[in-house]
Write a structure and sequence with these properties.
CATH architecture of the largest domain: 3-Layer(aba) Sandwich
CATH topology of the largest domain: Rossmann fold
Largest sheet: 6 strands, mixed
Low-confidence stretches: 2-21
Mean pLDDT: 91
Distance between the termini: 16 Å
CATH class of the largest domain: Alpha Beta
Strand content: 15-25%
Number of strands: 17
Oligomer: single chain
Structural class: alpha/beta
Number of domains: 2
Number of helices: 14
Length: about 400
């Protein structure tokens, strides 16, 4: 996903050292027979740390809460959490350690699509259940893997339906990061908007090192679209969100971003992004008793002054609780029985709303929210319940054909 690879973002990540990836181990005093080994692989440092840090925290909070409540089947969880430091070599090495040394029953992790595709084959061969909890371009179809985060049908679909209808949008100008995420998501977007009676008038792709968008802004001014959709990713592309208002375009043409959360918002001034819309399963501003309680627990664990968290913290947190339900329903850790239990449609009512595993695709059916930046905050302007990952489920049926380990594209 997410992508800086979205996520192959900065090639400088390849220079990260293994020293930076010393694991954090959460355990209680217990014999080996009394614990269940679990693992996590997240970029708590390096180029993807703005995403990976909160994912790592989400897994740790869930494990701590589960242990405090008695564990899983009466056994404590022993979490070994590696900082992969945005380095693909780290991912491969630490995945092997979790498989061979730790004998982990499940691993949560991967930030970029590149990191996912580095470890997914390793966990398949070892029959180690794998959870990928980052929003991404969709299409992964794998009996051993579960994706507990948004696909384009969930991030982009409901948002386009609302915006196109309410603003009578007929023409859309789009721009994307020049890599896997951008190309695949742009194809999904085109399908969605055409089904809604609108059309794309432009589709531009920008390398991750591009910082100057003045020529594109001029093209948008000339094209006069009803809506601009940005799938730009990463630190260099933050420049667009500064240059757009500087060119006097803020408020003149609505701007929707498929990849924009607190991670980017915190780098910009409120007046630079006023009115921008985006959509995810979770925003910290969701007003519900479940979210209020969750934020209180988060602040107690990570400090009242913690940075604003986004959907990645919650999808990672939910994934651990979904796995717990699968193990308890299976009555043990047998790989095939746990997978079958997870395929039965286990669900959680989390801080972002309900989330359930779709048996056929191993992705999540979830509630989604559409937010608009107002005075520097994400103001919720729309909600959808039980949104399916239809982009992936239309191509992937692991019940009819379980012998799959691939990624489909539109």
């Amino acid at each position: 996903m997410i992508s800086l690879d979205r996520r192959t973002l900065l090639k400088s990540a390849g220079t990260a050292t293994l020293v930076a990836a010393v694991p954090t181990i959460l355990t209680r005093r217990a014999s080996a027979a009394d614990v269940i080994e679990v693992g996590a692989l997240h970029d708590s440092s390096g180029s993807h740390s703005i995403y990976g840090a909160e994912m790592d925290q989400g897994v740790k909070l869930a494990v701590e809460e589960i242990n405090a409540a008695g564990g899983v089947l009466g056994r404590q969880l022993n979490l070994t959490a590696f900082d992969t430091a945005s380095n693909m070599q780290n991912y491969a090495q630490f995945a092997q350690r979790l498989i061979n040394s730790n004998k982990a029953s499940v691993v949560f992790g991967g930030v970029s699509s590149a990191s996912r595709e580095t470890v997914r084959p390793l966990f398949n061969r070892a029959k180690t259940v794998y959870f990928y909890d980052t929003f991404y371009e969709g299409g992964v179809c794998d009996k051993n893997a579960f994706v507990i985060a948004e696909t384009p049908a969930q991030m982009i679909g409901p948002a386009m339906a609302k915006i196109i209808k309410e603003r009578n949008v007929k023409t859309i100008y789009t721009m994307w990061a020049d890599y896997n995420y951008g190309y695949i998501c742009s194809a999904w977007l085109e399908k969605f908007v055409e089904s809604l009676g609108a059309k794309l008038v432009a589709k531009e792709f920008f390398p991750l090192d591009v910082t100057d968008f003045s020529a594109t802004i001029t093209k948008i001014q000339d094209a006069k679209p009803d809506l601009v959709v940005s799938g730009l990713v990463g630190g260099n592309h933050i420049g667009f969100y500064r240059q757009w208002p500087a060119a006097g375009m803020l408020g003149r043409i609505p701007l929707h971003c498929t990849v924009f959360g607190p991670w980017e918002k915190n780098l910009l001034q409120p007046q630079e992004i006023e009115g921008l819309t985006c959509s995810y399963h979770y925003f910290q501003t969701i007003d519900s008793p479940e979210n209020k309680a969750f934020l209180e627990r988060w602040a107690k664990r990570f400090g009242a002054d913690h940075p604003e968290i986004g959907t990645l913290a919650v999808t990672s947190y939910n994934a651990v609780h979904l796995w717990k339900q699968g193990v308890e329903k299976a009555g043990g850790l047998d790989h095939d029985k746990v997978v079958a239990a997870l395929e039965s449609g286990v669900s959680v009512d989390g801080p972002g709303g309900k989330m359930a595993i779709q048996p056929t695709s191993h992705h999540a059916i979830m509630s989604t929210a559409i937010a608009q930046v107002k005075d520097g905050k994400f103001d919720i302007i729309g909600r959808s319940e039980n949104v399916e990952p239809s982009d992936t489920s239309a191509l992937c049926d692991l019940i009819k054909d379980p012998n799959q380990s691939t990624q489909y594209q539109p």
